[in-house]
Amino acid sequence: MIDRQLLREDPDAIRGALEQKGVADVNLDQILTLDQKWRELKARGDDLRHERNQISSKIGELKAAGDEDAASEAIDQSQELKEKIEDIEDEADRLKSELDAAMLKIPQLPNDEVPVGADESENVERRREGFDELRSLPDTVIPHYDLGEELEILDFERGAKVTGGGFYFAKGDGARLEHALVQFMLDIHREQGYRDVFPPIPVNSQSMVGTGQFPKFTDDAYRIGEANDEPWEDDDLWLCPTAEVPVTNMYRDEILLDDDLPVKIQAYTPNFRREAGEHGTETRGIVRVHQFNKVELVNFVRPDDSAERFDGLLAEAEVVLQRLGLPYRILEMCTGDLGFTQRKKYDIEVWAPGDDMATGPEIGGRWLEVSSVSNFGAFQARRAGLRYRPERHKSASYLHTLNGSGVAVPRVMVALIEYYQNEDGTITIPEPLQPYMNDLSVIDGHDPVGEAAVGAGKRE
């Protein structure tokens, strides 16, 4: 949530941010009018309370002086003022609720350093890493969805059968690879000073509002029990779309001490989002699915340390790809592609050479976003009541929140399957990951199971 004082003092800055972010569904004039009416009602209520207090203080004096008529008249005036005050407070509460709901629709203001642009086509590539010494690839790199099915390590048909489109089975060494990547990432970030938490997977609406998922992205979330009858229908629980939600809300409505900061937390969770596959071009495979594993990095910092910690967070997330030897690039989001809650954001995009469905490097393939490293400033902190006390006897201030994926597991699997595949259709496991797979160095597939496998033959 933006600073309400900024809205009152510099509404043009908010208008500029709305224009830069391409937000057209926020009526700022209406919000300003609501705020003005609410403040006027509050002021009117305060004046009437002051007047009633003065009258009330005289009632005792009038009774003590024996002037019962005047005392009775003062009591009537006090009661009349009480009723007026109650009416004003009811209207002020109604306006406040309407104002609060409207304020939640105003996006974060971009940082002054963010490149101005209309959409993702104007994002800025800052650098590429790992392209100096690419490994030798097969003449034809098989896309992960085809090779994964051929090796019997990914199963999309059975995933769709038991759940629906956008879900998959990882099997055998594919499942081992997914587990290994999660633990590999957690170990790396633990080295970087991150504290582990394993949060609840269901989250309530207040938590989703706190991090900015609601109300804007309500349609993307999975509600628990929404298709059931009693006793589930009244539950206010949603499946976690990202560990950012439960972790950021750990300290909701709390005050941290200056000595606590920075707080660096990592959390692995499965994540659930309905928006998977909406782009049409990514419905095959595990690039865009409804359920996916991810390690999330969340930072709570002093405002003065925000920019430096943001750069540090980016570097920490990159280490995963560096150790795996995967080529990648850093992309800075322009204002039009920045997102609702971010003031500044970098995407880390890994290179997957097996598919030309999207524009990739000059040598083919495509870019897959595996981490969005975001600085939210005090935006989430205002929504969630996240504050810190600079000194024990000073007023509490809003802290800054930052997060980044460390990183999204399925898309790293895509890159590994495609970049580390060999001419014979096997997949080499990067050396740093081998200890997490019981020293397995090559995935060479599994025999198919069931009647459908009859006639398919066994793998040599």
Automatic annotation (TrEMBL):
<keyword id="KW-0963">Cytoplasm</keyword>
<feature type="coiled-coil region">
    <location>
        <begin position="71"/>
        <end position="105"/>
    </location>
</feature>
<feature type="binding site">
    <location>
        <begin position="369"/>
        <end position="372"/>
    </location>
    <ligand>
        <name>ATP</name>
    </ligand>
</feature>
<comment type="similarity">
    <text>Belongs to the class-II aminoacyl-tRNA synthetase family. Type-1 seryl-tRNA synthetase subfamily.</text>
</comment>
<protein>
    <recommendedName>
        <fullName>Serine--tRNA ligase</fullName>
        <ecNumber>6.1.1.11</ecNumber>
    </recommendedName>
</protein>
<feature type="binding site">
    <location>
        <position position="273"/>
    </location>
    <ligand>
        <name>L-serine</name>
    </ligand>
</feature>
<comment type="function">
    <text>Catalyzes the attachment of serine to tRNA(Ser). Is also able to aminoacylate tRNA(Sec) with serine, to form the misacylated tRNA L-seryl-tRNA(Sec), which will be further converted into selenocysteinyl-tRNA(Sec).</text>
</comment>
<feature type="binding site">
    <location>
        <position position="405"/>
    </location>
    <ligand>
        <name>L-serine</name>
    </ligand>
</feature>
<feature type="binding site">
    <location>
        <position position="242"/>
    </location>
    <ligand>
        <name>L-serine</name>
    </ligand>
</feature>
<dbReference type="InterPro" id="IPR015866">
    <property type="entry name" value="Ser-tRNA-synth_1_N"/>
</dbReference>
<feature type="domain" description="Aminoacyl-transfer RNA synthetases class-II family profile">
    <location>
        <begin position="139"/>
        <end position="430"/>
    </location>
</feature>
<dbReference type="InterPro" id="IPR010978">
    <property type="entry name" value="tRNA-bd_arm"/>
</dbReference>
<dbReference type="InterPro" id="IPR045864">
    <property type="entry name" value="aa-tRNA-synth_II/BPL/LPL"/>
</dbReference>
<keyword id="KW-0547">Nucleotide-binding</keyword>
<dbReference type="GO" id="GO:0006434">
    <property type="term" value="P:seryl-tRNA aminoacylation"/>
</dbReference>
<feature type="binding site">
    <location>
        <begin position="273"/>
        <end position="275"/>
    </location>
    <ligand>
        <name>ATP</name>
    </ligand>
</feature>
<feature type="binding site">
    <location>
        <position position="296"/>
    </location>
    <ligand>
        <name>L-serine</name>
    </ligand>
</feature>
<dbReference type="InterPro" id="IPR006195">
    <property type="entry name" value="aa-tRNA-synth_II"/>
</dbReference>
<keyword id="KW-0030">Aminoacyl-tRNA synthetase</keyword>
<keyword id="KW-0175">Coiled coil</keyword>
<dbReference type="Pfam" id="PF02403">
    <property type="entry name" value="Seryl_tRNA_N"/>
</dbReference>
<keyword id="KW-0648">Protein biosynthesis</keyword>
<dbReference type="GO" id="GO:0005524">
    <property type="term" value="F:ATP binding"/>
</dbReference>
<dbReference type="InterPro" id="IPR002317">
    <property type="entry name" value="Ser-tRNA-ligase_type_1"/>
</dbReference>
<dbReference type="InterPro" id="IPR042103">
    <property type="entry name" value="SerRS_1_N_sf"/>
</dbReference>
<feature type="binding site">
    <location>
        <begin position="289"/>
        <end position="292"/>
    </location>
    <ligand>
        <name>ATP</name>
    </ligand>
</feature>
<comment type="pathway">
    <text>Aminoacyl-tRNA biosynthesis; selenocysteinyl-tRNA(Sec) biosynthesis; L-seryl-tRNA(Sec) from L-serine and tRNA(Sec): step 1/1.</text>
</comment>
<feature type="binding site">
    <location>
        <position position="403"/>
    </location>
    <ligand>
        <name>L-serine</name>
    </ligand>
</feature>
<comment type="subunit">
    <text>Homodimer. The tRNA molecule binds across the dimer.</text>
</comment>
<feature type="binding site">
    <location>
        <position position="289"/>
    </location>
    <ligand>
        <name>ATP</name>
    </ligand>
</feature>
<keyword id="KW-0436">Ligase</keyword>
<dbReference type="Pfam" id="PF00587">
    <property type="entry name" value="tRNA-synt_2b"/>
</dbReference>
<dbReference type="InterPro" id="IPR033729">
    <property type="entry name" value="SerRS_core"/>
</dbReference>
<dbReference type="GO" id="GO:0016260">
    <property type="term" value="P:selenocysteine biosynthetic process"/>
</dbReference>
<dbReference type="GO" id="GO:0005737">
    <property type="term" value="C:cytoplasm"/>
</dbReference>
<dbReference type="InterPro" id="IPR002314">
    <property type="entry name" value="aa-tRNA-synt_IIb"/>
</dbReference>
<keyword id="KW-0067">ATP-binding</keyword>
<feature type="binding site">
    <location>
        <begin position="242"/>
        <end position="244"/>
    </location>
    <ligand>
        <name>L-serine</name>
    </ligand>
</feature>
<dbReference type="GO" id="GO:0004828">
    <property type="term" value="F:serine-tRNA ligase activity"/>
</dbReference>
